DNA sequence: TTGAAAGCGCTAACAT
DNA sequence: ATGTTAGCGCTTTCAA
């Protein structure tokens, strides 16, 4: 890497002259500025980021800790974060906790030693199960702001971006009730997560309000189980199901395909609605009616909130929670 | 952040004494070491990463530039990279080129100014179309190693990790020929990419070798088109299709569902085989027979290659290309 | 056994 | 208009 020192030597001026010239300081003579800039251009000089970070005590880097990059929703949020961060000149360092509390703690610690100016994260499953929050609090005490998205730790005082999970499923279920569905089932693959629980509650509320059926819930334990087989058996044991609300895209897609495989017509015999993305909806036939989470928008919001907070150093104690409303995109799997 | 200076002051010793004590230098007295370490522990002292980077002139950070985080294959490679990097104490800074040449160049430039010790990247579509490679060469000339994966620029001298695209599709097509399929179609959504072209060639070779049918190829222009509709029409216009080879997962999934929707039996009437992941194969019924790319393994390999190269500074001029063999996972969509 | 000083690359207050 | 110096946090050589 070419440094100020090298340029200074070649030009027979001092380092600070070069620095000032490149920063358009009024102090330096026109002629000198020109010479300096030309040489810098020639050598493609770029200020060393690390030196700047040390000097300014800020890195222009955001630490992002996510539980699972293979989750499409999370990947999309990450896309939003990166897009917005880049717009403001920030880079993102990504760590994947892999749903592990230990890895989450480590990553947080490591990045907190000077690598980043703040964090955006979604809480690992293990962390949610154990309800651990001390590591988050400690980081905040160190003066590094955190913005949590989707899976948040409610007891940590920090900015948050979440989805209206409860309302979304409540409304989706109600829309199926309006279709005169009499036996609406709820299928979930994410029942250990905070958001999974909220979604189940939304379903329960809608069903209980209606009062014409008992809640019918299928909870799938991740990984261990053969997702397809479980759902097939569920259909076999509950032949009168005429609608499905799915808390996650896999469950929705598999339920839809299973219904078709059983010779049922979708949506005539069975309606299906699921938390899922646009491309998921294109992967079924008929196209899946989906609850969209606007993942990219969430990422953008999270990044904006963090950047705002990082720029207003005097740690404003009021934290905000932004609820990004979902929307139902009606396709052909519902009436 | 707590610094050596602060510890030194509190202990009434010099900064260098503290530094040495914490680094287990033989020079420092046992008693002092103990005092220093205790205080460091108490204050949860962690050496400042930025200062270390500046001092050592290496950041222990890998720059990863990918065209699209929403591509499941790429996301999986990223997972592999992150896993392996973390194992070796490296962080990853992720930039998303969004298939844009300009963004790719910018990211490369920005990170090259001291933020990272090397790069892992997959070339943007626009870059491949324009066949631009100067920006890569320049980075390498600066002394920063690059490892490319999947979509590589063959004319750049650097380490690469690729898939045996040609052979994979060639073999897949042959396996359909062995099933006595007489009218095998090839569907691709990625025809502008280097890998897409290789896959098409593999298909063509197998078909031409057999000599019993003409190649039947459907190329879908990304984004603009309604993927489902195009494939439906393709089926309508080619009623005798009895097998599909898909260059990408979306095309495979949609083709399978379309066939079923037309009342065809899979795999009795139509076989389908596609480049896709395990979870994709679970999203169809019958389960999709897939060509697996071992994306995570590719990420791990790429990270290993880069780390090796970064540690052997005296830029070894021989570059390696690692070909990660795909494997066909037979499910229920083929005979 | 401990400390002082230099240097990584940069900026900025303070000379000249 | 230009240069000197100090300092960001750390390691390391050299001096005490």
Automatic annotation (TrEMBL), chains A, B:
PROSITE patterns, A to Z: HTH_LACI_2 (PS50932)
* Cross-referenced Gene3D superfamilies: 3.40.50.2300, lambda repressor-like DNA-binding domains
Pfam families assigned to the protein according to its UniProt record, in alphabetical order: LacI, Peripla_BP_1
Q: Is Transcription regulation found in the keyword set?
A: yes
Q: Which InterPro entries match?
A: HTH_LacI, Lambda_DNA-bd_dom_sf, Peripla_BP/Lac1_sug-bd_dom, Peripla_BP_I
Entry keyword set: DNA-binding, Transcription, Transcription regulation
Annotated Gene Ontology MF terms? DNA binding
Q: SMART domains from the xrefs?
A: HTH_LACI
> Where's the HTH lacI-type domain?
2-56
Domain of life of the organism encoding this protein: Bacteria
What is the name of the protein in this document?
A: LacI family DNA-binding transcriptional regulator
Which species is this record about? Algibacter miyuki
Species classification: Bacteria, Pseudomonadati, Bacteroidota, Flavobacteriia, Flavobacteriales
